[in-house]
Amino acid sequence: MKRKTLVAIIIFIAMSTLSWAQNNPKLYKIFDKKGKSIHWKKVLRKSAKAETVFFGEYHDDPVIHYLQLQLLKHLIESEENLALGLEMFEWQDAEVLNAYLSSKIDQNTFFSEANSIWKNYKTDYSPMVELAKRKGISVFASNVPRAWASAVYRGGFEALDTIESDLKKYVPPLPIPYDAELPGYRNMLKMAHGHGGENLPKAQALKDAAMAWSVVQLLEKGFKILHLNGTYHTNNFEGIIWYLEKYRPKTRYFTIAMVRQANIQKLNKEFRGLADVVIAVPDDMIRTH
Questions:
Q1: 8 Å CB contact between 58 and 231
Q2: Cα within 13 Å of Cα(101), Cβ side
Q3: In terms of residue numbers, what domain contains 160?
Q4: Strand 37-38 relative to strand 138-143: parallel, antiparallel, unpaired?
Q5: 18 in a domain, yes or no?
Q6: In 10 A of CB 92, how many CB atoms?
Q7: How far apart are CA 158 and CA 176, in angstroms?
Q8: Residue 155 is assigned to a structural domain of this protein
Q9: Phi/psi at 217 (5° precision)
Q10: Which residues contact 97 (CB under 8 A, 6 or more apart)?
């Protein structure tokens, strides 16, 4: 084949590939912590090796919720003792959630009695809970009651001492460890322009500690965990991860973060290192609410 003909073919293939990419927009792209593009199969392999997988999300992103469902399906097929943990359910709904999963109450009763169900539950989380219910997979509420977080926001960690509730059996050992200098907590104050004072990140830390402690309780019972949480709670291996390392050192965990950016073909530098795996979604993706 003549050189000019070969060059022409290569240019044609390149132009065709570019045209295809432009006319077939990608919904997401996956990167490792260094920003190298990887395939979904690698996410599955890494998830299989971990004791607990933290899948960080923006709560209104349909692409990420779909990928969470696919990961759950994979883990159900490959793991014998799996539990799904949800930031989206608070401890006060643990009993009604268990009652629904065990078919002691119907769905209408579940919706009417569960106080912490989010408004996008039916579209974004119900498919995963229903799958777990059909397959007999444990689902647990991992989050502290929001009223308790509000109390800490108003009065610091000391406010926990004034709470009288049977739900305090779920609380991590007091006093809750806290590092105000963690970048994630300092950044919260920066984003809030100082509003809320030093108690603002403490309320976030309470949620982080609560979710980490909830995960640890299931790990100690021999479960493998898939935990869904807002990506900020595990970004940069802080938040929940910081507390997990306090409460159960040497736990084998795997973190997934999501980001939004205009061009998902290359991970923006500021997002490298957010997690073991970072999933980029177009910033003009539709939102569920």
A1: yes
A2: 21
A3: 28-282
A4: unpaired
A5: no
A6: 21
A7: 10
A8: yes
A9: -60, -40
A10: 89, 110, 114, 139, 140, 141
